[in-house]
Design brief:
The complex is a heterodimer. In chain A, 42% of the residues lie in helices and 22% in strands. In chain A, strands 6-7-8-3-9-10 form a six-stranded mixed β-sheet, sandwiched between helices. Chain A has twelve helices and ten strands. Chain A is of the alpha/beta class. In chain A, helix 5 runs parallel beside helix 8 and helix 7 crosses helix 8. By secondary structure, chain B is mainly α. Chain B has a single domain, classed as Orthogonal Bundle (ABC transporter involved in vitamin B12 uptake, BtuC), CATH 1.10.3470. A two-stranded antiparallel ribbon of chain B has the order 1-4. In chain B, strands 2-3 form a two-stranded antiparallel ribbon. In chain B, helix 2 runs antiparallel to helix 3 and helix 2 runs parallel beside helix 4. Chain B is globular and about 60 Å long. Chain B starts with a strand and ends with a helix. The chains are: A alpha/beta, B mainly alpha.
């Protein structure tokens, strides 16, 4: 329990800390989750600022993916508070949280392999009355009209992501990098305000990675989407994000601008130091 | 010296083949439910025969014991089957796919043992008779209009007519956004959840519809045999259904019609092969032949006759 009380170093000395809290799209406080005896989340506290691109880093086993799973409802946290846009979401099922506007992708892409790319996209659209059996029978015009709108949006997005030519191919035939693009494009169909990306750059070639980053920046500028992403590539983390949150052993040990975080003694000790050792 | 010969004496008899056709149609409707669960939702339902049994028994019991009109008993029997489906699904659909499969086979066996032992309602192994008089009079009038002497021809027409209509309905529903969510659940439940779909609710709906189709097949089987006993609903019914599904090809509707027709012609047609074997041995041989056909299919055409190979390979 003692860990839960530890506040994040580096936050208190920022003059705008109070203002940041007000402008947080995601607030996590005192989040606890145990697997057997292991404290996967040991009273995790963090904020994600609205409109930011925030990176989540930490050594393997730090609890980054666990945090994503707990925040999006895939795991049930035992204690703590998660506020999305001021609304408490802990205890809600994953599908309900996704509908609120907090969407996520997975470390191993979860494209629906035996469905066409276009179906992958259209599936994700919210407010499709045709997903209720009663409407399918009683209001065929309503869902068909919505389907037209959804299809147009899906094709436009596929165009943006250079996947238009593959629209009618099975998603399973795409390359690994294309699947990552599809997953990002698909999550956008949900029209989310916050997107949690779990290692979006892992396993894709540098050219595609660059495109993915351009898309992320463009979406932030144009549609004010907030991004919170787990990443191991330090160049991406330091070069692309406005803020970096560092986790170690289920706790946030640092939180701030990339420059500040990269100078933090605890971070260097817990994370960057070990990376240096690897090299 | 002749080791074997095929006797065509019964082979050309219309009555026999009409009987085979009725069974094939009943299994077609039965398998439509399995198809929805296994082929389109990815839930492994090994208890489909339980819904068939409930549909048949609820209909017969309502008619014989509660003196309901036969026609009213049909929707009521389906409602009972759906309610049971929801009851089974609520606790067990959260289980992993393989545990759910075990739960459903247990459910179907429980239903069968209840039918054997609740003698006050079901007459146990002696069985139930005389629930079909309303149907027999309708059947007789249809026979009169058609001026045919084939007693089972009306049932054949009703069964295949219903099978045809249901196939069209299921196909169309499959092409809607609702069907798309089901396929997403089949592919990856977590992905569907992450995209805002209530996976549990869709699985429950899928099971309820399978229960509906199972109950329809159930009362058609009861009308076909004009008799109900628990041993008509042993687990082999479900697995024969799976054989139809595998033969025709998962996620193919043409496949169900072709699969059920081929399987029943194989099963029943082999009765006419005269071998120097006892009746029991021939009965067993029929299943050996069906088994051999299925093994051959798995080896050379795992997607079945009409299944899509890409979906099979990519979905794995």
């Amino acid at each position: 329990m003692a860990e839960a009380a530890v506040r994040v170093p580096g936050r208190g000395d920022e003059p705008s800390a109070a203002a940041d809290r007000d402008d947080a799209i995601l607030t996590v406080s005192g989040l606890e989750l145990r697997f057997g005896g292991v404290h996967a989340l040991a009273g995790t506290d963090l904020d994600v600022r609205r409109g930011s691109i925030t990176a989540l880093i930490g050594p393997n086993g730090a609890g980054k993916t666990t945090l994503f799973n707990a925040v999006t409802g895939f795991y049930r946290a035992e204690r703590g508070v998660v506020l999305f846009d001021g609304q408490p979401v802990l205890g809600r099922p994953p599908h309900a949280i996704a509908r609120l506007g907090m969407a996520r992708t997975f470390q191993l892409t979860k494209t629906l392999a035996a469905m066409p790319v276009l179906d992958n996209m259209m599936l994700a659209a919210p407010d499709q009355p045709g997903e209720r059996l009663a409407n399918v029978v009683l209001h065929p015009r309503r869902w068909r009209a919505r389907e037209d709108v959804v299809r147009a949006r899906a094709l436009a997005l596929l165009d943006t992501f250079d996947l238009r030519d593959q629209a009618y191919a099975y998603a399973g035939t795409l390359s690994g990098g294309q699947r990552k693009l599809l997953e990002l494009a698909r999550v956008l169909m949900l029209e989310p305000r916050l997107i949690l990306l779990d290692e979006p750059m892992a396993g894709i070639n540098p050219a595609l990675a660059q495109r993915l980053l351009e898309h992320i920046h463009a979406l932030r500028e144009r549609e004010h989407v907030t991004f919170f992403f787990i990443e191991h590539d330090m160049d991406v983390v330091m070069g692309q994000s406005d803020r970096v949150v560092v986790m170690s052993q289920g706790e946030v040990i640092a939180d701030g601008t990339p420059e500040r975080v990269s100078r933090d003694a605890r971070v260097i000790d817990a994370y960057l130091g070990s990376v240096e050792d690897d090299r | 010296m002749t080791l074997s010969s095929i006797s065509f004496s019964a082979f050309g008899q219309a009555e026999f083949w009409i009987g085979v056709g009725v069974l094939a149609g009943i299994y077609g409707i039965f398998v439509l439910g399995l198809q929805l669960n296994v082929g389109f939702t990815g839930i492994i339902n090994f208890g489909q025969v339980g819904f068939m049994s409930i549909g048949a028994y609820a209909m017969a019991i309502l008619v014989l014991k509660a003196h309901w009109s036969f026609w009213l008993s049909l929707p009521a029997a389906t409602a009972v089957a759906v309610a049971t489906g929801l009851l089974i699904g609520l606790p067990s659909l959260r289980l992993r796919a393989d545990y759910f499969a075990i739960a459903t086979i247990a459910f179907a066996e429980i239903i069968r043992y209840v039918a054997e032992n609740a003698r006050g309602l079901t007459n146990g192994n002696i069985g139930l008779l005389g629930f079909d008089s309303s149907w027999v009079s309708v059947s007789n009038s249809i026979q009169g209009w058609l001026s045919t002497s084939e007693i089972q021809l009306p049932l054949l027409l009703v069964t295949w007519g219903l099978f045809g209509v249901l196939t069209v309905v299921m196909r169309r529903v499959q092409g809607t956004p609702w069907g798309r969510v089901l396929r997403a659940v089949r592919e990856d439940e977590d992905a569907a959840r992450a995209l805002g779909k209530n996976v549990f609710s869709y699985k429950l709906q899928s099971l309820a519809i399978a229960a509906t189709l199972g109950s329809l097949a159930g009362y058609l089987l009861a009308l076909d045999l004009a008799f109900l006993s628990p041993d008509q609903f042993d687990p082999s019914v479900t697995f024969t259904g799976y054989a139809v599904l595998i033969l025709g090809g998962l996620a193919s509707y043409v496949g169900i019609a072709a699969g059920t027709a081929i399987l029943w012609v194989l099963l029943e047609g082999t009765r006419f092969i005269n071998l120097p074997l006892s009746a029991e041995q021939i009965a067993a041989l029929r299943f050996v032949i069906v088994g051999a056909v299925l093994i051959g299919l798995m080896a050379f055409r795992p997607q079945g006759l009409f299944g899509k190979r890409e979906e099979m390979v990519l979905g794995g």
